[in-house]
Amino acid sequence: MRTESGRIINLADYRPTDFVLERVDLTFELDPTETKCTSRMLFHRREGAATDAPLVLDGDELNMTGLLYDGMPMEAERFTEEDDVLTIRELPETGSFEITVDTVINPEANTQLMGLYRTNGIYCTQCEAEGFRRITYFYDRPDVLCVYTVNIIADKESCPLLLSNGNFLGGAGYGEGKHFAAWFDPHPKPSYLFALVAGDLGVVEDSFTTMSGREVVLKIYVEHGKEPRAAYAMDALKRSMKWDEDVFGREYDLDIFMIVAVSDFNMGAMENKGLNVFNDKYVLADPDTATDADYANIEAIIAHEYFHNWTGNRITCRDWFQLCLKEGLTVYRDHEFSADQRSRAVKRIAEVRHLKSEQFPEDAGPLAHPVRPTKYREINNFYTTTVYEKGSEVTRMIATILGAELFKQGMDLYFERHDGDAATIEDFVKCFEDASGRDLSQFSLWYHQAGTPLVTVSSAFDQAKGVFTLSFEQMVPPTPGQSAKEPMHIPLRFGLLLADGTEAQPRAIEGAEVTGDVLHLTKRQQTVTFSGIPTRPVVTLNRGFSAPINLHFEQPLADLAHVARHDSDFFARWQALNDIALPNLVEAARGARNAGEIAVDPLLADTLIAVAGDETLEPAFRAQILALPSEADVAREHGGNNDPDAIRAGREAVLEVVAHKGAELFAALFDRNHTRGGFTPDAASAGKRALRNAALGYLAIAEGRPDRAAKAFETADNMTDLSAALTVLAHRFPDAPQTAEALEAFRARFADNALVIDKWFSIQSTIPGYGALDRVRALMESPLFNRSNPNRVRALVGTFAFSNPTGFNRADGAGYRFLAEQILEIDPKNPQLAARILTSMRSWRALEDVRSDHARNALRTIAAGEKLSSDVSDIVERMLK
Ligand code: PHE
Ligand code: ZN
């Protein structure tokens, strides 16, 4: 494993390779502990490269057993193998030559899950970002694209299935109980998109006819017996393929598309060409075992990986600094897909909730980095919510600024101009500039400047002149390595609502460019006047969250309530309620911290209850309204000196008021939104369940007894309702006998279903309060806990650290010490997993002094660990800087 190497990679140092890789032939002879890999690579020297430049190939913990030059053993003087790098000298100035590398790999011992590993008896690979170099020496970088032929030899009995990228060439017996298969991928690709899977799996098969009439075979491979649980994923795949044709004009390009679900996987899924590998959590679903949220995730991730075929695979990244070129764009595409499949407004609310609770804290803390970073130490640590989610928001802003038609033309140009390329963000942006004629240089700061911009707004109305004025001031906070920031191009969708329910149509607007309903902020300070306004308007700003910013606008509560009840944009309605709720919750937290009185504005509870009870609105939207800003949201708004116990106490006080005031309504919602008779995962049914379960949460508070939740648990006929009831029982009544009974019944019923048992761990690890840590420690002793399965570790340890603010941030610091212990234990086995869980401490500096001292000490304990991986040491050092 690569340990702590202080080496920093800089964008400015990018240069192409000295040699061009024309093709590669790989042969794998699979064995659990001694897999033989032979790689034959055909190279020629790049035109213009120095004539004495050596060939320098990347490796990582490799065991090289042979090296040939044009089929003959390489003379020892001509190569060195040092520090995970193979250097070959004295290579021809012109003409092609062949290098053959033999390596021996131990898949069984590969607990990092990078390169070739085994999971439940299945051989599988994970190569992004730099896993291929754990298989063989290679130009393991995304700008080296070539065609691959792959031969796989394996035991026939244990590995009836032999898969790789591209199209199947043929197979045959191979003596002594073995067989072999050959695959050829005609699409040149970088090594990170290589995949191999071998083993004994069940399959679900289907087909898709593309827009030009080609028939594509679709196969999803899962463990035997789990085939029925892959049906929804298959349906989502076909809908994704159709959608990408309809909306982006993109057609699939091989004869076969395969997905393999595995139970040990570091991330969500991987877009290997023609052979996606998935964490089985994002494939397997049926009503008894998957929640509505699981179904929505499966749909989104199946789509995401499929969409990568064009945005990622056919057009890939020049280097890893450009990661957002494929990830930000592909997240944007999967967001749009889900919005079209479900309720657009509700989807947007969920996206923004996620962005604010995950990306905003990252951007406000020690791990902040630009969407397109300029340096990194460990690329694995840049698969972040900033690159993914903020990257998607930046793409969305391009669409907002250009408008749908020009955005589409820019995308078409991108596909046409860069198909087959390893491209950059500059290439991408240029396509939109060329398609629209608009200068996007200021806009591009979104890729380069980290930090969430803060826009402060004030308004004035001159009744006599009929002039309404909005004054804006924007500020981008300093972030690591970037102290001074330039003003950004911020596109704000807006509306001026009049009392009669119509929107004002200003005679003239001065002080900013306005296109349609988009106001373009470009200066540090900007005053915009709207003339011809008859009466004082209510402003609705940043509709649809058109820009990922913090907005400070002291609007009268009545104005916010007006937006919450009447805006034409449902996202804006939710946002307005949020803007009423958050200051209340922050105040309540202050009150709780100072042991003072907690005042709750009656307008908040009344508006919430009115919206929740409005039968003209879709249930999913009302459920979102009832989910008050989370404790993490309050912490972010509070902004520093945070005391998670006070934040919770304050928020609980607000919940109490709402629960009691709305008890009657909640009881009615609970009864009326029962989805009986056959579960369907569609958005409308999911919305009803979400509303009903939100009501159950409030009723548990109002009634103060577990009876209703216990009954809901007993009668639930699907996993959504079952796990919601169990969560209410566990979180509201942790000591009630009904809770213990329900937890045990759940465990016994699902003991052999890993994904459901993960829920059992997560629900318990998020029980709030001081006792959570002991509970987590006890659960780690359970025979069901499995340290080597990333999903299980995330479900218990990760969920505790990320999603249990009061339990994890215990004032005595025991939660942080526990985390340090866990990180040091996980790191040697799976550094990526350890580093990811460690980021749960990214907001430690915003804690009040007692806690932040404990947090710092825990981080120092980690930093002092022996033989830290580069993954963990990179994160911990940035957090302590
Ligand atoms: N490229 C994958 C995705 O977003 C994520 C991933 C990264 C998976 C690294 C594994 C390793 O779709
Ligand atoms: Zn992706």
From TrEMBL:
It comes from the Bacteria. InterPro entries: Aminopeptidase_N-like_N, Aminopeptidase_N-like_N_sf, PepN_Ig-like_sf, Peptidase_M1, Peptidase_M1_dom, Peptidase_M1_pepN, Peptidase_M1_pepN_C, Peptidase_M1_pepN_C_sf. Residues 451-553 form the Peptidase M1 alanyl aminopeptidase Ig-like fold domain. Residues 27-193 form the Aminopeptidase N-like N-terminal domain. GO terms for biological process: proteolysis. It catalyses: Release of an N-terminal amino acid, Xaa-|-Yaa- from a peptide, amide or arylamide. Xaa is preferably Ala, but may be most amino acids including Pro (slow action). When a terminal hydrophobic residue is followed by a prolyl residue, the two may be released as an intact Xaa-Pro dipeptide. Its cofactor is Zn(2+). Its EC number is 3.4.11.2. It is an enzyme of class 3 (hydrolase). Keywords: Aminopeptidase, Hydrolase, Metal-binding, Metalloprotease, Protease, Zinc. Residues 232-443 form the Peptidase M1 membrane alanine aminopeptidase domain. GO terms for molecular function: alanyl aminopeptidase activity; metallopeptidase activity; zinc ion binding. Residues 558-881 form the Peptidase M1 alanyl aminopeptidase C-terminal domain. The keyword Transport does not apply. Belongs to the peptidase M1 family. This is Aminopeptidase N.
